[in-house]
Amino acid sequence: MTVAGSAGTADSCGLFGTPCCADDLCYPATTVGCSPEGLCESCGSEGEPCCRESTSAPGPGEQNGQCNRSGNVCSAEGLCVPCGGEQEACCANSWCTDTGGDALGCCVGGICVADGASCGEGNGTCSDGDCSGCGTADGDPCCDGSCGPYLQCDTNGICVCGGEGETCCPGSPTCDEEGLGCFWGYICQPSVDECPAGPSSGSCNYVGPQCWYQDNYPLTLMCVCTPTGWNCT
User: Fold this and answer.
1) Domain residues of the chain, as ranges?
2) Of the candidates 63, 70, 65, 108, which has an alpha carbon nearest to the alpha carbon of residue 86?
3) Residue 190 three-state SS
4) What sign has the CA pseudo-torsion 190, 196, 198, 202?
């Protein structure tokens, strides 16, 4: 793949070992990612750049940056880092699963604190995944910018879930509004009853995971729109 260079020459970009293309793109985006140094490298393992769902998905460091191990999460810098342990980054959906003992830790300010530890001034104490003074339920104040599993902190510092673009609420998991489905990543997005064109073939415009089967709800069969068509799992 080539792009026009600053002097009108054709400079290679986007392939393994070459500079990243515009918007930090590398190809294929599911196995090659853009490093902080601006080079395309293998992605998804600990310490490597985060992968993308597809070349059309938002870049690393955003909500859908992908890592290959359940014990890693995509950091704001676009790297796969350890998560879930005491004083490590919170894993996806604010899980803190390896902080010692049998109980869950709590996500406070994006960092896991151990069960029984303080959640910070005014936030109470961590008890099996929940801080006693914040972040436990829809409508609670956030814990220094974080919330408990399957909740997210909005711009007003309140934990929310279930609305379009928000995390699915704890439990089933569920969305609050009719016409929304709970998709991969546990994000509420508009849904349809069945995928078009097959569903596993045919063209589509990438808008993220968006198609589900009601008779398999929740999350047993999802269809993701990719550059090559619908991918159903």
Assistant:
1) 1-81, 83-151, 161-233
2) 108
3) strand
4) negative
